[in-house]
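In this section we turn from sequence analysis to structure. A common task in structural bioinformatics is to predict how a protein folds when a small molecule is present, because the ligand can shape the pocket around it. The inputs are simple: the amino acid sequence and a SMILES string for the ligand, here flavin-adenine dinucleotide. Study the lines below before reading on.
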Amino acid sequence: MFNYLLDETQRQLRDEVRDFVKSIPRQMILDMDAEKITFPKEFLQEAARRNLLGCRYPVQWGGRGMDWVAAATAIEEIGTLGYVFACTFGVGAELVCDAIIIHGNDAQKEKYVKPLLCGEIFAAECLTEPRGGSDFFGTTTTAEDRGDHFVINGQKRFIVGGEGADYFLVYARTDPEADPHKGISAFIVDRGPGVESKYLYGLMGCRGGGASRLVFKDVRVPKENVVGSVNGGFEVFKTMMIPERLGTAAMTIGAARPALDVATGYTTRRKAFGQPVAQFQGVSFQVAEAAMLLDAARAMVYVTCRAVDQNEDGRRVRRMISETKKFVTESCQKVAHNAMQVMGGIGYTNVFPVERIFRDLRLASIWTGTNEVMSMIIANEWYKEYWANKQAGLTRDPEPDAAEADAEDEKIYE
Ligand SMILES: Cc1cc2nc3c(=O)[nH]c(=O)nc-3n(C[C@H](O)[C@H](O)[C@H](O)COP(=O)(O)OP(=O)(O)OC[C@H]3O[C@@H](n4cnc5c(N)ncnc54)[C@H](O)[C@@H]3O)c2cc1C
């Protein structure tokens, strides 16, 4: 825990979230994993009653007017309950509401944000389609302009809250001829005629979030439900990727933490060859590595939060967020791996929660943009930044600092 990174109000929020987390009955965690609960409405209602949802938003809309550092702290703590709790905590309040708060109008905030933050309604985010998730701009769901309303047709896949949500933020193509960056719009779609939840997936982990395939068939959506402008979906998508990936990073740390805790306790007590296994370096070094990775991951999350809070340059933020999502998710998967390894066979059973955490965290590098997509963004932004910096000449050029630097004949590029 980096207490010194938090101010008094942020620490207070974290402690409130910790109290909430402690209040959740163990049976709810087990029932979610067993999919006896398909979507945790009671959990979200209680979080809302405690005013924990959407703490970044203005008080006027039900938030607390706090910043990203505060939000990440809350999300991390929720993650300690299990990945799916943080996921459902975030998908409506942190993702869908973020789009409406930034791009929507007051009527939309009144109708869709306020009641969600009060726990009266629930929302889901619909980007991924059966034909592919990484290629967002290949969206084939269409929204046809019919004067005072649009008609949406298409399908979305793996939608958390597909079962359970009352409304959906749906991206659909509004101009099939245009470049996709200029031909997609974001809509608020109420669950109603033509919206059907078709299939609940048998997931490896992160169960109980109602992840399903949604079919939209001739769904009538009033014009006032466009978020932002018609054909302005890319603008909404761009800002949504901040909570999507930064939130994922924060919750992943929370989800991995208990694995390290359990493994630390176990290896202190478990004996082999007449001594606690923690006294073998082969064991304690794996615990040390996990602790180091968690601290490094958290440092990265909070540095990136600061960058977002201080409106750092958009391109730089895009790179930092992608790096954070990738580094944190891979580090936390390693934390869960080490935790299981040092516990031996019992770590692989459901006598301890490490196996559930391990299953849950496998998802971390796949969703909210795969880690390959993160690498693509990082590489893209890094090269641009490199050449811009070189042109600006702000720092010493390291290239001539080699003994044979003037061997121009050896510097062959083509
Ligand atoms: C449990 C769960 C919950 C989810 N929740 C939601 C949700 O609530 N809302 C939502 O919209 N989506 C959700 N998703 C979808 C998730 O974000 C996508 O699965 C993810 O973005 C990958 O898309 P895909 O599955 O179509 O894989 P594909 O895009 O088909 O990718 C397949 C493989 O190809 C790689 N690949 C693709 N393009 C490139 C490239 N250009 N360069 C290098 N490698 C590439 C990918 O990294 C991956 O390894 C969820 C998924 C799961 C499993």
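The CA atoms of residues 108 and 311 lie 25 Å apart. As an exercise, try to locate the residues that line the flavin-adenine dinucleotide site and compare them with your own expectations.
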